[in-house]
Design goal:
Blueprint: H1 3-30, H2 37-46, H3 53-60, H4 64-76, E1 80-83, E2 93-96, H5 98-119, H6 124-142
Antiparallel strand pairs: 1-2
Helix pairs in contact: 3-4
Length: 145
């Protein structure tokens, strides 16, 4: 394996480890609202307007089945409602309830404090380089081969 391949493999491993840490942190941030990080993510996307579970999955690059499981829990917990979809009667539109909107407001404030605290220990230049690198990696991975 070349040095370049070794370093990319290390980057991929670090991204996976960081993702796990971010999910655990997200779960801790959302626990007081009775949510998980995955549920928060779904609610955040629906905050932009009604959408279907399939569209959510597409936009997040996730499996539709896992998004549907999260949606079902949110429906049971009174965070989402279903509305008729004029474009496809088989795929209802998902909408936030007032309870979900309130939870998102609280979580937004909590997340902002957390992000500011974490960012205070990072160089702004390093953050910018990381953002560019991750964007370039995503673009490279989605290029047709």
């Amino acid at each position: 394996m070349t040095r370049r391949a070794e370093r990319l493999t290390q980057l991929v491993n670090d991204v996976f480890l960081t993702n796990g840490t971010l999910l655990a942190t997200g779960d801790a941030l959302t626990a007081p609202a009775g949510l998980t990080a995955a549920q928060w993510l779904v609610l955040g996307f629906i905050e932009d307007g009604p959408t279907t579970a399939a569209d959510l999955a597409r936009r997040r690059g996730l499996r539709r089945q896992s998004v549907q499981e999260t949606v079902n829990r949110l429906l049971r917990n009174g965070m989402l409602t279903r509305a008729p979809n004029p474009a496809d009667a088989r795929a209802p539109l998902l909408e936030l309830t007032p309870v979900a909107r309130s939870a998102l407001r609280d979580l937004g404030a909590r997340q902002a404090r957390w992000a500011d605290d974490v960012a205070s220990g990072l160089s702004p230049e390093d953050v910018e380089v990381t953002l560019r690198t991750l964007a370039a990696l995503r673009a490279r991975l989605t290029e047709p081969t």
